[in-house]
Design goal:
Length: 292
């Protein structure tokens, strides 16, 4: 289920909630169950959706993993393919039902969860094998996840739907280099990812300025840029499999900081720091469980 990655998916939801304006005029004094429950349900939804997606990734890759990733649970005999299918299906079901509990059948959240499920399965079965559409397909899963958080306020989704495009290109850039984890990558591919990374944190900076929160968001944006570029530049110098793997892992874990930056740009510093607290949790889990 990639627990470290799931933490980053929760950060997506919290960033989306901040972008939606849901946190405006909310303080510790005004917190209530009615406020917390929809956020908790969307967090539960993304746990199910992300978990289901990576479980089915291993299901569809089971035969290939016998050769390239024998340490994974299915080829390693820890769990059977049938058991994995049942687990993945259950996780998707939990994710979809939790999302529909926010807004019901007439809201956006549940249908976004359905779209994420379809996008995950398309990527797991077909998309990952496509040179151009594969990375974009993977990015779409993450972009829809950010929109899932924004959907907590329906009107906000109609205003900020375009924000989902940014993680699409960012994750597409990460996915673009991930194909070199086993046999090594190319300098050209790594440079393309570096340019996309620059466009992403450049866009974040512009939006923070437009919201008059650049001084609040700047430390988060800088930390994000450092976390993704250090392992990427190391991989550029020596594009062997292990270095590529570290660059991919850095790009995934740094999503927590990216989301904290969004919160800082759209909400307040305390909320951004709460999201940033997910980073050490994700990093610890990243040492205990596989990230890629």
């Amino acid at each position: 289920m990639r627990p470290a990655n799931i933490i980053t998916a929760i950060a997506d939801i919290l960033a989306g909630v901040a972008i939606s304006g849901y946190l405006i005029n909310i303080s510790l004094d005004t917190l209530s169950l009615d406020f917390i429950l929809p956020v908790a349900c969307l967090c539960l939804a993304t746990i199910g959706l992300y978990g289901g997606g990576v479980v089915f990734n291993d299901v569809f890759d089971a035969e290939l993993d016998k050769i390239e990733r024998p340490e994974r649970p299915i080829p390693g005999g820890v769990i059977s393919k049938t058991q994995a299918i049942i687990l993945g299906s259950y996780l998707f079901l939990v994710g979809i039902l939790a999302a529909f509990s926010v807004g019901g059948l007439t809201g956006y959240s549940g249908w976004l969860a359905v779209a994420i499920t379809i996008s995950c399965l398309v990527y797991d079965k077909w998309g990952k094998h496509q040179q151009l559409l594969g990375p974009l397909n993977m990015g779409l899963c993450r972009g829809l996840n950010l929109l899932l958080g924004i959907s907590i306020v329906s009107n906000a989704l109609e205003t900020y739907w375009w924000m989902g495009i940014i993680p699409i290109f960012y994750i597409a850039a990460v996915t673009n280099i991930s194909r070199g984890e086993v046999h090594g990558g190319s300098i050209k591919s790594l440079k393309l990812t570096a340019w996309i990374y620059a466009a992403v944190y450049g866009t974040m900076t512009v939006l923070a300025i437009l919201h008059n929160r650049i001084y609040t968001a700047a430390p988060f944006i800088i930390l994000f840029a450092v976390m993704i570029n250090l392992p990427l530049f190391k991989a550029m110098k020596n594009p062997i499999g292990p270095n590529i793997g570290k660059a991919v892992k850095g790009g995934i874990i740094a999503l927590v900081v990216m989301n904290a930056a969004w919160v800082a740009a759209f909400a307040t510093l305390p909320y951004a720091l709460v999201v940033l607290l997910l980073l050490p949790i994700s990093m610890i889990l990243g040492k205990l469980f596989a990230v890629t």
